[in-house]
């Protein structure tokens, strides 16, 4: 139960009681106001009864009633008193600034905020501090808990889905009249039928979701907001199965909310975007945060003309003008995903268009790829996920090496994106397809986000955010970062971690695969050149991991901090993400690096070809699902039973790699081998030259001395990083050496990694 959770201040609480009720679909209808820095509107949630309650109720309701009795006793005094009036005559069809609700003529006692005071005035809701209703509501009501933070919730109401014209097809009987209890059951029956429609009826499903979201209210619900949650109940409803399965929440964000950031782009124009906050999207809309709450969504977003709305939707939205100066953008998804993957970016973005000649060349890239369908011998299998329109079952999608893509950027960065980014995207997408097969998502937008973005990139379904820092210099940083984020389409998005503490499942795989993708994107490289680049990169990552282990808390270095409890939830479904809010953790790379080295070690043990075949098998078996570490490791070891005899077991991998702090023992033994790499040896020779030059200059003092000509070799960007890191380990470097370094390698024109 939620009240038993005692999260440390550094842990992120996931409060939603998903075991009792599970959200299946969201519909958002939002207005973005840059003047007040507020996003305001309505969200409608469609639920199914949760798995825990369904199991217990199959043996009778008495077994689980005590849980709800206890919840009611603890929370009865916390709720706002909402009159249970029927307001079904009031339409709540959502149009821009024209929400038709009851109470429009009531006296306005709300705090006005920008142009959105009408909705506040109409809400007619007392806060929980002002009014409670313990006596009338008893102590046995079921409480629905949603994850929520930094939101002003104005009203919560039940949606009368039975009032939708044509909805009879989702009922056992065409008769929609009857007693109150019968109507409540009928509404929940309609929602159940709607959320369980087969995948080939997804268009009809979205149509009726929209119609239901616009249905009138059939009564307001009691609610209270806490630091981390929104709790909702209906008087007299004691079990999840009887609780309304379609609810509408009227709310607005706060300027200080941590899910989105309001800022200006590089051209000085206002914008707002989800920047990957540790608290995810709970300050953008009330939701169920636990990964198990896989859901689909639709969103209509209105903003002033001149702004472009990009979202993590399947469709490439085209704006519709609602009135002069106001545009509406509509997106949707049909693949169930965690609420944390929902992404939005609103700004004066410009689309970077391809030149016709360049587009023709890139089209040729797609069709000149070698066929790798022979490797995908699992594609005939039935998918293991819940039903949705899956690309892995679509013959055309399985042959699509390059999915449709667009690039957006502030006006001042368009030329740079055209020169660097546009040509890299199809190469990287093709390389990813050659490695893993079918792209899980049907399209891709790439956005260069504002300069306050704290990372180099962030992947969401159908959209990637890239930092402006990847654009200068050569193609290496831009290409590898693009490959990393593209890899997340498979690992992190199509396949997600069931326990958020196992970040390595996402970041370790993406780091490992970025090297594979990038090697294949550079088609002109020989096998030896690829191997040299990857060994150089391994050494740089080993040094980074070594430094991080020496300068961080041990408990933050463990990839599976919950150990044998990983993936386990409380009875209600609530849990905490260990260290989820710890400030240092945000900047740590241990999950990237240790995860990468584990996968690299396994690939070396098994052989790269067999290992990549196992990755493809894993993708085909587990896409659309949530996994734990053992799901991957068990499948991998089943494919190579001979390795078990040599001592490679899941338990050993847990012990050596995932459940302990510090550098894994197998990695300590391997650390010296990369120094034998030709590219590393070349850097070592250059470091020696620079140290000797530094010593000569220091000995000569101020006396002018004819400089001996030293010839320095041209180095790759990763070699320059290793060179500079090695020179930083020297006690002193004289100013003339620093000037010579700058002049020799033109450091200011290199990529961000070298400049850093």
* Annotated CATH homologous superfamily of the largest domain: Neutral Protease Domain 2
Q: In what order do the strands lie side by side in the largest sheet?
A: 6-5-9-3-2-12-15-14
How many alpha or pi helices? Answer: 23
Largest sheet: 8 strands, mixed
Tell me the CATH topology of the largest domain: Neutral Protease, domain 2
User: How far do the termini sit from each other?
Assistant: 47 Å
Write up what this structure looks like.
- The strands form six sheets. Strands 6-5-9-3-2-12-15-14 form an eight-stranded mixed β-sheet.
- 36% of the residues lie in helices and 18% in strands.
- It is an alpha+beta fold.
- The protein is built from 23 helices and 24 strands.
- Helix 9 packs across helix 11 (504-521) and helix 12 (527-550) runs parallel beside helix 21 (717-728).
- The chain folds into three domains: 12-54 and 138-340, tricorn interacting facor f3 domain (Immunoglobulin-like, Sandwich), CATH 2.60.40; 349-356 and 384-676, Neutral Protease Domain 2 (Neutral Protease, domain 2), CATH 1.10.390.10; 678-754, no CATH class.
- Strand 20 and strand 21 (463-466) form a beta hairpin.
- Residues 439-657 form the Peptidase M1 membrane alanine aminopeptidase domain.
